[in-house]
Design brief:
This protein is of the alpha/beta class. The protein has seven helices and seven strands, in the order βαβαβαβαβαβααβ. Strands 3-2-1-4-5-6-7 form a seven-stranded parallel beta sheet, sandwiched between helices. α3 packs parallel to α4 and α4 runs parallel beside α5.
């Protein structure tokens, strides 16, 4: 029996870890890709069905190597680009280097995943590419200019990919996370925890996109709590 595999980039604590565990629960062998090798090993090292790969998702060669590595175990059935960099500041306070770093983490990383994983999927005529979006791409609030640019670029990329790869059998999905994800940091910063989005719940949304039938694919879906943030 062929082993189906998955790749999750940005597989650190929080949503990344929840995504890895959800797709592992589905019986896939999952490649967890992130910068910190020790943290990957501490988080997933006890599961033989999870391959930990340390690397920089903004490095196209590193992402291509990760795809090649996991495909030796089995065909890549789903890849999730879940990377971003946070720097909240007025636009005029950014350096060009800071601005580019946010774009590279939030947009270029997605291109690298799509290019490396999408080729193999298109050749087989099946596969799923999912991307983590942000409320910043829907409402470019003060202080979120760099993130808004990166994630708006990501959104445009997913729309193009859907038109280019959809006819080749590859499902493209873009999940907009409309609010802060529940974590120790966000709980400390927000008195109303009802406004924090459960990372395991988000992972279920990703999985729901993965199992959609080919004649009813969604390209974009947004996720928020019942206690919605003000506009």
């Amino acid at each position: 029996m062929t082993t189906r595999t998955a790749l999750v980039t940005g597989a650190g604590p929080g949503l990344g870890a929840s995504l890895v565990r959800r797709f592992r629960k589905s019986g896939l062998h999952v490649a967890a890709f992130a910068r910190n090798a020790d943290r990957l090993k501490d988080t997933f090292g006890d599961d033989s069905g999870i391959t930990c790969i340390a690397g920089d998702v903004t490095d196209a060669a590193a992402v291509a190597a990760a795809v090649e590595q996991i495909e030796k175990i089995g065909p890549l059935d789903i890849a999730i680009a879940n990377s971003a960099a946070w720097k909240i500041a007025p636009v005029l306070d950014f350096t060009a280097e800071d601005f580019e770093a946010v774009w590279r983490a939030g947009c270029l990383s997605a291109f690298n995943v799509a290019r490396a994983a999408g080729k193999a999927m298109a050749e087989r005529g099946q596969g799923t590419l999912l991307f983590t979006g942000s409320a910043a791409q829907m409402r470019a609030a003060s202080g979120f200019g760099a993130m808004a640019v990166a994630k708006n670029g990501l959104r445009a990329l997913t729309q193009t990919l859907a038109r280019e790869l959809g006819p080749k059998g590859v499902h493209i999905g873009h999940v907009v996370i409309d609010g802060p994800i529940d974590s120790a940091r966000t709980r400390a910063a927000n008195a109303n925890h009802d406004r924090l989005i459960d990372p395991e719940g988000i992972a279920e949304v990703f999985h729901g996109l993965y199992v959609q039938p080919r004649n009813a694919w969604a390209n974009e879906i947004d996720v928020r709590t019942f206690s919605e943030w003000p506009a």
